[in-house]
Design goal:
CATH topology of the largest domain: Serine Threonine Protein Phosphatase 5, Tetratricopeptide repeat
Structural class: mainly alpha
CATH class of the largest domain: Mainly Alpha
Strand content: under 5%
Largest sheet: none
Number of helices: 8
CATH superfamily of the largest domain: Tetratricopeptide repeat domain
Number of strands: 0
Shape: globular
Radius of gyration: 27 Å
Number of domains: 2
Length: 161
C-alpha cells in the first residue's frame, strides 16, 4: 500500500510539473505567432500609400485622416531614426498634403542636408515649390536634377507645361 501511495504521489507531482511546463511554453508563444509586428516606419509608409490612393479617388476627407495617421507613424519613426532621409521625405509629403507648408519645406530640406543626391526628395520639393508658385525655387530644383537622367527629372519637367 505504501508503494502505491508513493507511486501515486510521484505520478501526481510529475503531472503537475508537466502541466506547469506546458503552460509556461504556451505563455511564451501567446500572441507571437507569425511575423513580428511592423514598426512605425513601415506602418507610416503603408498609410501614406493608402492616403495617396484615396486622394486619387477624390475622397479627400478620408485621405486627410489617412495622411494624419501616416504623419503620426512617421513622426514616431523619425524619433527612432532621426537621420533617415526617406522618413524626412515622407514627413514632408504628408505635411504638404495636410497644408503644413513650413513643416513640409523643413523636412525636405533636412532630408537633402543628409543626402543631397536623394532624387525623390528633390522631386517632392520641386512639386511643393511649383504648388506654392515659387518658380525660381522650382527651377533651381529642376536644374539640380537635370543631369541625373532619372524619372524624377522627366516628371518634374512635365509640370512646367
Amino acid at each position: 500500500m505504501k508503494n502505491f501511495n508513493y507511486f501515486f504521489l510521484l505520478f501526481f507531482l510529475i503531472s503537475i510539473l508537466f502541466k506547469a511546463y506546458a503552460y509556461e511554453g504556451k505563455q511564451e508563444n501567446l500572441g507571437r505567432e507569425g511575423p513580428p509586428p511592423a514598426g512605425p516606419y513601415k506602418l507610416g509608409y503603408k498609410e501614406l500609400e493608402r492616403a495617396l490612393k484615396t486622394e486619387k479617388k477624390g475622397k479627400f476627407k478620408k485621405a486627410k485622416i489617412k495622411f494624419e495617421k501616416a504623419l503620426d507613424f512617421l513622426l514616431e519613426a523619425n524619433a527612432e531614426d532621426p537621420a533617415n532621409p526617406d522618413i524626412l521625405n515622407y514627413l514632408g509629403l504628408c505635411s504638404a498634403k495636410l497644408g503644413l507648408n513650413e513643416n513640409a519645406e523643413i523636412y525636405y530640406l533636412l532630408g537633402l542636408e543628409l543626402n543631397d543626391q536623394h532624387n525623390s526628395i528633390k522631386y517632392n520639393l520641386g512639386v511643393f515649390y511649383k504648388n506654392q508658385s515659387r518658380t525660381r525655387d522650382y527651377k533651381e530644383v529642376l536644374n539640380s536634377l537635370k543631369n541625373c537622367g532619372c524619372e524624377e527629372y522627366k516628371n518634374l519637367k512635365k509640370l512646367t507645361n
